[in-house]
Amino acid sequence: MSLICIFGNSHLGALAQSANGINRLEAAGHQVVFWGIAGSNFEKIAYDRGQVVSPMPQQSLRISGGRFESLDPSLPDVTVFYGFNVGPSYLSRSIAVALQKTKNISSGLRDAIIDQEIRRMWSQEIACVLISQITSAYPEKRYLFAPQPLVAQHDEFLDRVKDNNVLFEIQTRLLRYIEDWMTDRNIQYFSQPEDTISDRFFTKPAYTKGSVRLASAEEHDVGDVNHMNPEYGNIMLAKIQRLLG
User: Fold this and answer.
1) Which structural domains are found in the chain, ordered by start?
2) Which of 43, 86, 152, 188 suits a disulfide with 208, CB 3.0-4.6 Å?
3) Which residues of the chain fall short of a pLDDT of 70?
């Protein structure tokens, strides 16, 4: 039985609460363990002397079902980097809003600015640093990556954006850049299924209702637009299973 570690931030909650998806993976011969941490402390995870070290080891221990306070990347046969604080909705919007401050520039210069900002932002992401360290140390292992889902549909998200088409272009280019970065490092990228997306920028609202917290399995506050529910987690676990073959 192969060991699959799904490693990520608070967005693991949707997958960890999907009993159907986990049962299917286990029936196919995969043992599944989750590991990570919720909230801003995810940014404090560090790779040190062959171990991925949690700033809140007791929380990470609970998330892993009592298996791991720290994570030894040599143990899993497959590591799935999931969510990993890579939120394409907010990253894309921040670039779009900043770009609006530039005036009367050519399309070529605009494209160069977008590409530069994508590279700069990605280089500063914990995902870029941590994934590079782990995969460089254990290149013989198999790795998958998926970013956080798009935010659930809500009108306020687009209030600061003047041109939705520019935002969509940035979002598309950002995700393509991340996919290419992963492919260059032999990491299999998988994206949010198109049938869970609404109006180009959003996850359909049905997938956020009843979302649960990773650390406590309690429901998120009403109005949470960032986290998805076990139904969405079931879809993503099924996608992981298809990729594993």
Assistant:
1) 2-89+129-156+174-244 (3.40.50.1110)
2) 152
3) none
